[in-house]
Design a protein that fits this description.
The structure holds 2 protein chains of 2 kinds. By secondary structure, chain A is of the alpha/beta class. Helix content of chain A is 32%, strand content 26%. The longest helix of chain A has 19 residues. Chain B has a single domain, classed as Ubiquitin-like (UB roll) (Roll), CATH 3.10.20.440. In chain B, strand 1 and strand 2 form a beta hairpin. Classes of the chains: A alpha/beta, B mainly beta. The structure holds flavin-adenine dinucleotide and FE2/S2 (inorganic) cluster (FES).
Chain lengths: 362, 105
């Protein structure tokens, strides 16, 4: 069985940030990702980030991704792609399916940075081809250079819905409308303004009630909803289109942590069941860490900082950094997190994260 | 369907142009891109029909999570075409139900 000091499951921003931070401090790191390219969701993020300079504010997601890869290579981090971690067992051993063979690996410390999966809402016709996740639209257009469709409806006005709608316009698709059951737009105003400038109409307090078509979606009907989010008869509007993108939120991918009976906490503002973790991102199982979306849905920039904190904590617990240097470096990361977890959107996540940290203390 | 000139990304780096077969029709795509992407650029939208109700399914998540896009590739059923790279000469078939029975070598 192969052994190493640290394994990151996931080569998204959280996993890569943790790997580089730990490696910089001397830890021997191995990263597994089931994809055939690293970067997680980063390479499909072609918009500029918001925040201060140190949060890569002016950079686009894919540039941040390339930066990490370059750094990882320089530091000797081994990134094993097309490698699915199938399970984590006692004593931090794991089974990894690498292409068509299974390998057992054991690590002193394991970081679970597996990201999130997209939520779905059911409605009549919801399984028709052409109804896709917003993340799917982003992947198809920005990574593979294909339009997911010619004319689409975006369901959901959170940041993913807004950003992906804008990216579909950039890709040359038509966006019929953005709808949301909530009365107000969920995402940042800057993102909403960009789409509005293209003349895309927003229908707030509306939901999708039906998708029509034989073998492929040909139309979508939306209706206004009342206070209980129930469709109001007589308010239907029908769009002729060939694609519907669903952007109604993400939920943390925690299957590997569930296998270990990791302590979970229900936190709606972070996307559902979230693994309890302490200020160093360690879960209720000693030696198992979480960072990024799998520790609660936030953003790429917060995923990077959480990853760095996890990397530092792992380097510290393996004896590569002394107490004072660890606390000083971690403090610096906490400080840069403050700006990201503030404002109307960030504040709720800050409170939720504090609650999770408190749960860990018991 | 392919985006030729993207305002941010410019052109897309692709492998060599190769031919493949979909349900007895000859098609072209780029080596290494997901099979689903090559199919879509040829206008194919339906990947399979479900076992019990015979309903059509196509791409849903595009990152290998949901299995809506599974097809029969070179005789092997249940291949997630959104993450499986296209190879020269691949033979791809619409999957019906669980697909053909495979005899193990
Ligand atoms: C579709 C989508 C679009 C998004 N768009 C934006 C955006 O535009 N801007 C923004 O700020 N945030 C966006 N987000 C939010 C997200 O918080 C961040 O973008 C960021 O990518 C999260 O980083 P991460 O490292 O936690 O997860 P990810 O980037 O998702 O990386 C997780 C990685 O783990 C791998 N993995 C999972 N399970 C296994 C396993 N068992 N074995 C091996 N590997 C595994 C995956 O293949 C993936 O590469 C988006 C999220 C999604 C899902
Ligand atoms: S579309 Fe979901 S697995 Fe391929």
């Amino acid at each position: 069985m192969r052994r190493c000091e640290m394994i990151s499951v996931g080569a998204g921003p959280a996993g890569l940030a943790a790997a580089t931070e730990a490696a910089r401090n001397g830890v021997e790191v191995l990263v597994f990702d089931e994809n055939d390219r690293p970067g997680g969701q980063l390479f499909k993020q072609i918009h500029k980030f918001f925040g201060s300079e140190e949060h890569h504010a002016k950079e686009r997601g894919f540039d941040i991704g390339y930066g990490f890869l370059e750094e990882a290579e320089k530091l000797g981090v081994e990134v094993s792609l097309s490698s699915v971690v199938m399970g984590i067992y006692e004593n931090r051993t794991m089974n990894v399916l690498i292409r068509d063979r299974i390998e057992q690996v054991r690590a002193e410390k394991i970081l679970v940075a597996t990201g999130a999966s997209e939520n779905m809402i059911p409605f009549p016709g919801w399984t028709l081809p052409g109804i896709i996740g917003a993340g799917a639209a982003q992947t198809i257009a920005n990574i593979h250079g294909i339009k997911p469709g010619e004319n689409l409806l975006m369901v959901g006005s959170g940041n993913v819905g807004l950003v992906v709608a804008y990216q579909m316009l950039q890709a040359g698709c038509q966006v019929s409308a953005i709808i949301d059951a909530a009365p107000r737009i969920g995402g940042y105003e800057v993102h909403a303004a960009k789409v509005a400038r293209y003349g895309v109409p927003f229908f707030m307090s509306h939901t999708i009630t039906e998708a029509g078509g034989e073998k492929w979606i040909e139309s979508a009907t939306i209706s206004q909803v009342d206070k209980e989010w129930k469709p109001i008869p007589g308010t239907e509007k029908k769009f002729e289109l060939d694609t519907v993108c669903i952007a109604v939120g993400l939920n943390p991918m925690t299957q590997l942590l569930d296998m270990l009976s990791c302590k979970m906490v229900p936190v709606p503002s972070l996307g559902g069941r979230v693994p309890a973790h302490d200020l160093g991102q360690e879960t209720s199982i000693p030696g198992i860490y979480v960072a990024g979306d799998s520790s609660g849905i936030e953003e790429a920039s917060t995923a990077i900082i959480e990853g760095r904190i996890a990397g530092l904590a792992i380097a510290h617990s393996l004896g590569y950094i002394d107490d004072s240097s660890f606390l000083e470096q971690r403090d610096r990361q906490f400080k840069s997190m403050v700006g990201l977890r503030s404002g109307s959107h960030g504040e709720a996540r800050k409170i939720a994260k504090e609650y999770i940290n408190a749960v860990m203390k018991g | 369907m392919r985006i030729d000139d993207h305002p941010i990304l410019g052109t897309f780096e692709k492998g060599q142009k190769v031919s493949f077969v979909f349900d007895d029709k000859a098609m072209e795509g780029f080596e290494g891109e997901p099979i689903a992407v090559a199919l879509r650029s040829n206008g194919v939208k339906i990947h399979r029909y479900t076992m019990r109700r015979n309903q059509p399914r196509g791409i849903f998540c595009a990152i290998g999570r949901c299995t809506d896009c599974i097809m029969v590739v070179d005789g092997t059923p249940n291949v997630r075409t959104c993450v499986e790279p296209l190879q020269k000469g691949s033979v791809i078939q619409t999957q019906v139900g669980a697909g053909p029975e495979v005899t193990r070598k």
